[in-house]
Design brief:
By secondary structure, the protein is of the alpha+beta class. Helix content is about 25%, strand content about 25%. Bound molecules: ligand MTE and molybdenum atom.
């Protein structure tokens, strides 16, 4: 599965280099369309991003049937945030957990878990691909992120959606970010259930992101706060996510 994934990525990037060469030399500035003023996208990453966007911002990640669910879906990265505050929330069954949505929105809001669960539900069976070389098919249930964001009325200058998480590695908090196209994609959900059960702590309780057209590290677990921003430069070390900051992973991790 992993090799298939890499081949697909390589093909995409190769196709971009061949087919997009003219566009690149012809309209060189990345900011030509006014969409990319930041420097977080390295050239190769920008190609993969553009190709995905050219192929179609609405294309769907493949969905599977119940019979294809992986018998085991391993956990990865942090599996229990070490903060006292998080562990207290967990002991209370997340009854007192609140998701804060702020930043470049007209109407900052806080949501309890039951409020998110009362919103229209979406379930999807998808394959999770971790960059470390494993994949698993799981069923995710939650609310579409776009529906939640709509209620906060993002400002016109909002370009990124940043997920601040409860866990950390050393002194660095885990966080991730996506653009508004992925944020409003129909398969992008804040998931509170997995394989028909309450989302386990190891998999990111009370909610974790599913952003199905990108690799595993983009799927932020233990989300505490969602911030809309115009630029990623002032957040964390400025590259858009924990792994991007610490290890040079691509910000756009299209599969
Ligand atoms: N908050 C947080 N989110 C995270 C991670 C993490 O360590 N902390 N690990 C990422 C990685 S690398 C992967 S592959 C997936 C793993 O999700 P899982 O534990 O449900 O398998 O979560 C991603 N999201
Ligand atoms: Mo991963």
């Amino acid at each position: 599965m992993m090799s298939g994934m890499i081949t697909r990525r390589a093909l995409l990037t190769g196709g971009a280099a061949a087919g997009g060469g003219l566009a690149l030399s012809g309209c060189a500035p990345i900011t030509a369309d006014g969409n990319f003023g930041d420097t977080i996208l390295e050239t190769g990453n920008w190609l993969s991003y553009r190709v995905h966007r050219l192929i179609g911002s609405n294309s769907l990640a493949r969905e599977y049937s119940d019979s294809e669910l992986s018998p085991v879906f391993r956990t990865n990265g942090n599996t229990l945030p070490d903060s006292v505050g998080y562990q207290k929330l967990a002991q209370e069954g997340f009854a007192n957990w609140k998701l804060r949505i702020d930043g470049l929105v007209e109407q900052p809001k806080s949501y309890g878990l039951s409020e998110l669960q009362a919103m229209p539900t979406r379930s999807q069976i998808t394959r999770h691909d971790c960059v470390e070389g494993w994949s698993a098919i799981g069923k995710w249930t939650g609310v579409q992120l776009g529906r939640v964001l709509d209620e906060t009325r993002p400002r016109p200058n909002a370009r990124y959606v940043v997920f601040h998480c409860a866990d950390r590695f050393g002194a660095m908090n885990y966080y991730e970010s996506i653009d508004l196209i992925d944020a409003y994609h129909q398969q992008t959900i804040l998931a509170y259930a997995m394989n028909g059960d309450v989302l386990p702590i190891g998999h990111g309780a009370p909610i974790r992101l599913r952003v199905e057209r990108q690799l595993g590290y983009k799927h932020a677990k233990y989300i505490m706060r969602i911030e809309l921003a115009e630029s990623l430069l002032g957040i964390g070390a400025g590259k858009g996510g924990y792994w991007e900051d610490s290890s040079g992973y691509d910000w756009y991790a299209g599969i």
